[in-house]
Model the fold of this input.
Amino acid sequence: MNTQRTALEMRLEDLESRLTFQEDTLIQLSDTIALQDAKIQTLLKKLERVSQKYQDLNDEMSKDTRYQDEKPPHY
Done:
């Protein structure tokens, strides 16, 4: 009976060890996902600003008709 109890205790300790490792891994993964989400949000905001600046420049250039009819200097 003592041998059976020892085997069960060893098995229980192994399961507890695995559970602790898995919990730690889940916490690390969750932290990593949170950091990546924050970086993605920052990049999306920057991309939106760049897109808006590009659109503003494009609109401004399309309003300025003197450049549209003018031939490049090499002609």
